[in-house]
Design brief:
Elements (H helix, E strand, L loop, with lengths): L1 H23 L2 H51 L5 H118 L7 E5 L2 E7 L13 H15 L4 E8 L43 H18 L7 E5 L12 H7 L1 E8 L2 H7 L4
Helix pairs in contact: 1-2, 1-3, 2-3, 3-4, 3-7, 4-5
Amino acid sequence: MKFIWKDFRVAGFLLLMSFFLGSCVSQLKFNRVNEEVAGLRNERESLMKRSESLKIQLEKTTKELADFKDENEALKRDSAQSGSMYRRNRELLDDVFDKYDRLNKSYNTLLANSSNEQKETDNDLLQKERDIMKMSKDLDDMKAQISKAQLELDKKKEETERLNQAMGQKDGKIREMETQIASREKLLSDFKTRMTTAVMELNSGDLVVSQKSGKVFVNIPNGSLFGTGESALQTSGKEALKKVAQVLAQNEEFEVSVEGHTDISPFRPVAALAPAKPKSKVKGSKGKSPAPKAIPAKPSSIKDNWDLSAIRAASVARELYLLGVSGDRISATGKGEFYPLDNSVSEEARKRNRRVEIVISPKMQGVMDLLSPKK
């Protein structure tokens, strides 16, 4: 019964180990532990077989001893038998007792060893069970950490995808802006060519067409447009503006800014001289008419060069409007003497600085729409 109870304990422990090993540890560790348990089980079964064999042998010996005792008793009753037979039987009996003692000692030794080995096996299995439980807990902790890391990784992936989408949208806007800017640069270059051709047709070496910073500049000296100190356009100035206005009217995609510039000389109104009315001859005179008197000019509303440059710019802008350029494309600005082309004080430098610049640039509404965030 003792071995049967131990068999049930071992079987239950093996089932418990199989449950833990099947659910918690890796296949490799499970196989190793299973092999160790199988080896211990085989060794235990071998010991149990040996013990059973010793039991059978002991029972056989005990039976032989009983037989010998019966035979001895028979010999004792049979007094007629010889002493040699008695001594033989006695030797046989002693030999049997000696064998019995040896077998009994061997059995007790085997039984003690089997108990110790079973105890050690139970202790080993208990320790392995504790190790398995610890590994199971460590594995659960690792799974929790992996799940947490996976969640963080998924968040990072989503954030990276959002950033990539935002970068793609920005790259698309940048490429679209670059395309529009390149288109405007080409448009501006073509416009400059047409404007240069129109200016050349005027046969005026004073008008200069240039391109810089994404704009076309038409530089017209004041001498070609206005008289000294005056803000009204001369006939020659109107003729010069006709060619410019024709090109502008045909290119409605451009905005026009008229900038007036002066030199550093202070503004002085021009005094108007009017001839005096002829008078009748005065007696005693030699018949000569008196010299004409200088009539003072009317007070001017122009205060300084800034005023003068702004009024001249407005006069040119008005003339362009009258020549067919849409008014919502034109602006006029007075720059005074603060934006000179030549900073020297020579007369040639002052002549260059006295000018009107017509600054032509493409409308940038498309680019501004791209820069503005969508609602």
